[in-house]
Amino acid sequence: MAKKITERRKDYSQWYLDVVREAQLASHSPVRGCMVIKPNGFSLWENMQRQLDDMFKETGHRNAYFPLFIPKSFLSKEAQHVEGFAKECAVITHSRLINSEDGVTVDPASKLEEELIVRPTSETIIWDTYRDWIQSYRDLPILINQWANVVRWEMRTRLFLRTMEFLWQEGHTAHATEKEAREETVRMLNVYRTFAEDYMAMPVITGIKTESERFAGAVDTYCIEAMMQDGKALQAGTSHFLGQNFAKAFDVRFQDRDGKEKFVWATSWGVSTRLIGGLIMTHSDDNGLVLPPRLAPTQVVIVPIWRNDDEQSRVIEYGNTMFKALKGAGIRVKLDDRDQYKPGWKFSQHEVEGTPLRIAIGPRDVDNNKVELARRDTLEKKIVDREGLEMLIPELLETIQSALFESARKRTLEQTRTATTYEEFKEILDTHGGFVYTHWDGTVETEERIKNETKATIRCLPLEIEEKPGKCMVTGKPSPYPVLFARSY
RNA sequence: CGGGGCGUAGCGCAGCCCGGUAGCGCAUCUGCUUUGGGAGCAGAGGGUCGCAGGUUCAAAUCCUGUCGCCCCGACCA
After folding, report:
1. What is the pTM of this model?
2. Using DSSP, how many helices (H) and how many strands (E) does chain A show?
3. What is the domain range of residue A480?
4. CA–C1' span, A35 to B23, in Å?
């Protein structure tokens, strides 16, 4: 069997690219830093979207859509926000092309009076709109989500993990009180945590970002951080408490019960197609993609095997009945009865694409009323009775789902260490990578120094951690509890 | 923006040093045999060699320029 995938231990980033290519998730586009998301990748995104969307609706949010283009002047209204995004904005300056000798050229006469920015995020245009939507406390809260594409002009890109254009959802809420907005921020962080762990089977640590890692324009940025197989951390989602920063910048006030005019409190939160990168790097192996059943576009594939026409019709009939029964049981099942590919080829293909379960059926199985079941995660194969399959498969899918989470959890735990001295800290990073808990004195200077010297950043100040006073590993100054460091994507 | 690599058939590559009919594997098409872990044989189709100049009787190959992409680092979801 020809191996088209580089081994993880040999070259992790080449392995990642190989998996994306062989599983046909996406390909590079003619435009630098952009990607074509292929049907396999997009179905995965659709499944993520569907689940997240349900969870957003469940928590009272509604979807809306705001423009791709933002007037340049909007960007300059919130000082921190501009500073954060100014360096990576695509700017539209003209509206027309004209024919020229070498094809087409920009028509200088079509220069825009006010240039437009392709949204890097939508806070500004949304808050400009919210001003019109909000007059009274009765108009609050506003709980809006939008599914959209955004553009950030990145210097260095990587399929799914960092592309210049990416797909995401951005929630933007407006509240009458600080308390309510803070609660919303944490509520959505927990939605992300639940989604990551229960659906992606990707364990995450929740926490708060330090000032330097905070979203531009936020008062507090909460995040979920996941640990990848190669020892690097991935920020998988963020939820921001924006305070009154945007309300003040865009003059969004409301009249409260007490008759007084007040500025609105805000949150925003988002996850992106980056999650697909996280999913790949959490579960996949040297044979290709491994998908958690709850998100897999195809959960079960049935591969029929035959030698002649007679066997073909018997096996296909057997497979068809099974297909209908499983589909009826609510399973995302596919019968791969294509005649132009051999079974062995199909086995490999579905394996590299990460289909959680494979059912192989041949004439022998038809005669004995059996099937061969193969798990993608463990690569185990066993023969089971045809009867009761409709009950067995859903259970098995759930077993796989929790096995994936469990093994990722165990791995993350093994990749999590504690350092008390700076020497120990560097030693851990260089030999193992992973998460490192250690004390930090809370200053930007120390954080900066550690980053420059080790390339590790503070991923977050974890929410679930016991108070355990100690001393900063660099300066020896007191610290109330350890913080989480890692090198990251 | 620095460092490295690459642009030759749909995909992956060789050919370039040493100029002389553009090749290999996979894929595609036809036929036969096959089908329980990426099938075999026979035949067929498919390429402005990234682009622009230059040297030469002759350029994928040498020279100059230029464009693009990928990978590794400095910034970021």
Report:
1. 0.95
2. 14, 27
3. 416-486
4. 32
